[in-house]
Amino acid sequence: MNEPLPWASFVGAKEATIKTVIRWGLNHGVPRVALRLAARKGDLQGRITVEASNGNDLTGLFDEIRAHGPLAPTGIGHVTTRHAAVREVLGSDAFHATRPRYGDGVLGKIADWASTDVLHPVQPPSLLVTEPPDHTRYRKLVTRVFTVRAVEQLRHRTQEIAEQLLDGLDPRDPVDLIETYCGLLPVTVISEILGVPQEDRAKVLAFGAAAAPSLDLGLSWRVFRSVETTLTSFDAWLSHHIDTLRANPGNNLLSQLISARDEGIGLTERELKSTAGLVLAAGFETTVNLLGNGISLLARNPDQLEVLRARPELWANTVDEVLRYDPPVLLTGRMCMRDTEILGVPVRRGQLVATVLAGANRDPEVFADPHRFDVARDNARDHVSFGAGRHYCLGAALARMEGEIGLRAMFRRFPDLRLEQGAGRRPTRILRGFERLPVSLTASGDQREARTR
């Protein structure tokens, strides 16, 4: 038998550990220290990163960044909370959706040596960081499932799922809505779209929650190791799921993608896995935040619930106001690929521009009284929470539909819902939402009596 020698196994394990340490150091350890030092010196990119990681209210910082003009300078480029600048950067072909690269020198060679084959949402061939022509090819294969018309055909089924989940809630006891409703509704919908069996959905939801920090820069060693372990497990699960559907295809998007790939139409095996994995994770992760943020906002603003009871036609607009006021994604970055200008401000090749979506949504030049939550706001839909340009969110129509049904069904069934102590925001920086949202679903006796007076 040709079993590996113990020394060979030791060397292989040692090499794997060294590679892991290098990946963390280059992508998180060094940026983590640099951003913290920059924040102490007042750098706006450092400050927004550090303050977001600490869970601070960023409203004042949004205004401070905006006061610097269309683009505020940072140590690595620019940051903006101007609505017009965000839209222009995201729509310009002078900017690419990518993280900084290490070049062809020694650092680049070390980074290549330490890289891993495990799929990652911010590494190619992910849709999040690829550009045309590959991005066009990937997106074309999945776009038809997420058109407004296709999503409307899912409306009845989404309503059924929401009602079934609400049937399962005991109104006599406090309940964490993230665990029992906000997570389960979108993961069930996207799982049906991608042919994920019911017995695997809790596992997929857990994968998504554990891998959410993968979008962040500057992770601690502990969180980084947890994310890499989760992504490895998700990669293995996804491979098995694809093999199962290849053997027994169904009437779902992933079976269609597999068929297209096997017919040589557009995707390699790795591209197939990356696209399927991203659609699956993105299909529920941000919607969990949308539902949780929306329930919290409406419960804390009973006057807005009264508006909705009088004008139920505003529920769709309410979803856009939730997206504007407390969006599921804080910011996104773009790398400048050639010297250019944004609203008269020069941007040099190689500079990073952080477009703060949540800040652009509070731009007073676009939104009157921007720090007020108003379900009747006439231009709520002008938010940039889904991005802009060629990377505009593929699932925007699906998220809007799920948000409308999910929020309306919740408050129709439990109009006296109130928040309880113990709510906690997610520790992630890019994704914004609740990790826990405990509520009581029915009013107390005193509240019911007061309401009938």
Tell me about this structure.
The protein is of the alpha+beta class and 453 residues long. The protein has a single domain (11-111, 143-452), classed as Cytochrome P450 (Cytochrome p450, Orthogonal Bundle), CATH 1.10.630.10. It is built from 19 helices and 12 strands. It has helices spanning 6-40, 44-53, 59-66, 83-91, 106-114, 134-143, 148-152, 155-167, 177-182, 184-193, 201-211, 221-247, 253-262, 269-300, 302-310, 315-325, 357-360, 396-413, 445-452; strands spanning 72-74, 77-80, 95-96, 175-176, 331-336, 340-342, 345-347, 352-356, 418-419, 424-425, 434-436, 438-440. A 5-stranded mixed sheet has the order 1-2-8-5-3, with helices on both faces. β10 and β11 form a beta hairpin. α14 (269-300) runs parallel beside α18. It is globular. The model is unreliable at 445-453 (pLDDT under 50). Keywords: Heme, Iron, Metal-binding, Monooxygenase, Oxidoreductase. Pfam families: p450. One of its GO terms (biological process) is cholesterol catabolic process. InterPro entries: Cyt_P450 (IPR001128), Cyt_P450_B (IPR002397), Cyt_P450_CS (IPR017972), Cyt_P450_sf (IPR036396). GO terms for molecular function: cholest-4-en-3-one 26-monooxygenase activity; heme binding; iron ion binding; steroid hydroxylase activity.
CATH architecture: Orthogonal Bundle
**General form:** globular
What is the CA–CA distance across the termini? 85 Å
CATH topology: Cytochrome p450
Radius of gyration: 23 Å
What is the domain total for the residues? 1
**How is the biggest beta sheet arranged?**
5 strands, mixed
Number of strands: 12
Structural class call reads: alpha+beta
Protein name: Cytochrome
Family: Belongs to the cytochrome P450 family.
GO molecular function, one term: iron ion binding
InterPro entries: Cyt_P450 (IPR001128), Cyt_P450_B (IPR002397), Cyt_P450_CS (IPR017972), Cyt_P450_sf (IPR036396)
